[in-house]
UniProtKB/TrEMBL annotation:
Keywords: Metal-binding, Oxidoreductase, Zinc
SMART domains, alphabetized: PKS_ER (SM00829)
UniProt-recorded name of the protein: Enoyl reductase (ER) domain-containing protein
Protein's organism: Hibiscus sabdariffa (roselle)
Subunit details: Homodimer.
Length: 361
């Protein structure tokens, strides 16, 4: 076992947790498992705030287990490795995304698609194979099997890398899988938030022409001037939509609120693909004729496997794809959650765990 000298035993951990569906987070002491022979333990330095964290702390999906320590965009520095760990050493820059376990034997796992394993273990609020409940990255340490650890390249800042482990892979994977990563394609991105702005950046880095489709006209200047999109459509403006009909090769739809799909299908060329990565609570209305007339596809996608997640991080480092972030202190997290409800962030909160998480809980 290789270990950095630590004042505290790595089993002792502290962070912030929600105790009930009020969603209010407060300091919390707990324990991590001892570092196993194939485990990597690391000191958490930054953790992104995902919109799903908000749903989970408030139990809006009905699956939350309290106390709940959120956070699945976790980055830091390795402090200890098990004696059978092959790919990481003490001092490495690493991260953990949305999952920390899978069966490793099903067809999905064999195809490097652990994210579709029926026994996938989420990074927080899920039952692990040993029966314990997983705790996320709003904490000082993490321990995970090395298979679920991502290496962060030296030229990618850790604070910017954090949101890529959820938001980044969520949009990168469908661009790759559905063949929307070819230079010269015209890609639409629905919604300009945490997911949408990263989708824009990856699509541009892949050489695509990008159109943002949004309900908010006031986001046009930001999209065109700061994110470098090629065009902007207001989804409620029928004249704009009509003028753009049949112009897009594919669309990444990041919106989780209820919204009409029919106008988006109209924007697609023949053989175009509409890919949903947002998850509206109520079923979307999907008319058949627009699919038949042009052989169009509607698909979905959910994060990505570990091999593809590493590929995404390496691509981001090579092409300087970095989310726009607002770094906050741990004590600000409840205010950040309130702002997240109002979409008052450009475009992703990242908690500076290393500098602001107080030891004395």
């Amino acid at each position: 076992m290789t270990r950095l000298p630590e004042e505290e035993h790595p089993n002792k951990a502290f962070g912030w947790a929600a105790r009930d569906s009020s969603g209010v987070l407060s300091p919390f002491n707990f324990s991590r498992r001892a570092t196993g022979e194939k485990d990597v333990a690391f000191k958490v330095l930054y953790c992104g705030i995902c919109h799903s964290d908000l749903h989970m702390v408030k139990n809006e999906w009905g699956s939350s287990v309290y106390p709940l320590v959120p956070g699945h965009e976790v980055v830091g520095e390795v402090t200890e490795v098990g004696n059978k760990v092959q790919n990481f050493k003490v001092g490495d820059r690493v991260g953990v995304g949305c999952m920390v376990g899978s069966c490793r034997s099903c067809d999905s796992c064999k195809d490097n698609l652990e994210n579709y394993c029926p026994k996938m273990v989420l990074t927080y609020g899920a039952k692990n194979y040993d029966g314990t409940i997983t705790y996320g990255g709003y904490s000082n340490t993490m321990v995970a099997d090395e298979h679920f650890i991502v290496r962060i390249p030296d030229n990618l800042p850790l604070d910017a890398a954090a949101p890529l482990l959820c938001a980044g892979i969520t949009v990168y994977s469908p661009l790759r899988y559905y063949g929307l990563d070819k230079p010269g394609l015209h890609i639409g991105v629905v919604g300009l938030g945490g997911l949408g702005h990263v989708a824009v950046k990856f699509a541009k880095a892949m050489g695509s022409k990008v159109t943002v489709i949004s309900t908010s006209p006031n986001k046009k200047k930001e999209a065109l001037e700061n994110l470098g999109v090629d065009s902007f459509l207001v989804s409620r403006d029928q004249d704009q939509l009509q003028a753009a009909n049949g112009t897009l090769d594919g669309i990444i739809d990041t919106v989780s609120a209820q919204h009409p799909v029919l106008p988006l299908l109209g924007l697609l060329k023949s053989h175009g693909k509409l890919v949903l990565v947002g998850a509206p609570e109520k079923p979307l209305e999907l008319p058949a004729f627009p699919l038949l007339q042009g052989r169009k596809l509607v698909g979905g996608s959910m994060i990505g496997g570990m091999k593809e997640t590493q590929e995404m991080i390496d691509f981001a480092a090579k092409h300087d794809v970095k989310p726009d972030i607002e770094v906050i202190a741990m004590e600000y997290v409840n205010t950040a959650m309130e702002r997240l409800v109002k979409a008052d962030v450009k475009y992703r909160f990242v908690i500076d765990i290393g500098k602001t998480l107080k030891t004395a809980c």
